[in-house]
Amino acid sequence: DAGITQSPRHKVTETGTPVTLRCHQTENHRYMYWYRQDPGHGLRLIHYSYGVKDTDKGEVSDGYSVSRSKTEDFLLTLESATSSQTSVYFCAISEPGAGTEAFFGQGTRLTVV
Amino acid sequence: GIQVEQSPPDLILQEGANSTLRCNFSDSVNNLQWFHQNPWGQLINLFYIPSGTKQNGRLSATTVATERYSLLYISSSQTTDSGVYFCAVERSSFQKLVFGTGTRLLVSP
To answer: Model confidence over A67-109: pLDDT tens digits?
Structure first.
């Protein structure tokens, strides 16, 4: 298994509170990603990072921010959680170049009440 | 952006049966991966297959890039094959994957 650890694995939070999800990798991969999974939508890209301090928006970035201060850690922050952000969040890693595949963490189930 | 369609959306099989899952995509791609999401939610890499054919045990996959589709074959299905199968493609830089909505497979004993 790829060395990807997401924390926490489960979280229940109240509307309006800030929440930070952490992704930690031991593979030294350059690229990291945050996706969310919702019924009927598959997985959708929130934000991604192509290097330390280098990040960009994905398809569904509104309401989310990210930071990457070290190669191994990629943080996803919900500044003020809303019920529409109830979802399962997956972190992924990959390397640049042809012939490389992405690997996913085990997911974080977030419920906003 | 690129569109990814998977069919069928749901599939029920008896143990031992064979099946074919299909993934159509709307534009040329640099990368195509198949994943299995098990009942515990874990995403398991099955194949990295932007073109050609690969086999791994009872599973095989074929991508015909010029016709923009990929097929995943499952032979002699087992109950542990149950779950959701996702196709994901990447066209742009930075290997950002675009997922289909998946095929939900249930294999009954």
So the answer is: 999 999 999 999 999 999 999 999 999 998 777 899 999 999 9
Q: Rounded distance, CA A19 to CA A112, Å?
A: 10
* pLDDT, tens only, B51-106: 999 999 999 999 999 999 999 999 999 999 999 999 999 987 788 999 999 999 99
- Looking at domain A4-112, does it have CATH number 3.10.50.40? no
Inter-chain CB proximity B96 and A45 less than 8 Å? yes
CATH of domain B4-108: 2.60.40.10
Phi-psi region of B6 (alpha: psi -120 to 50; beta: other; left: phi over 0): beta
Residues of A in contact with B56 (CB under 8 A): none
Nearest neighbour of B45 by CB, restricted to A42, A58, A103:
A103
For A2-35, what is each residue's pLDDT tens digit? 699 999 999 999 999 999 999 999 999 999 999 9
Nearest by Cα to A110 from A13, A45, A18, A22: A13
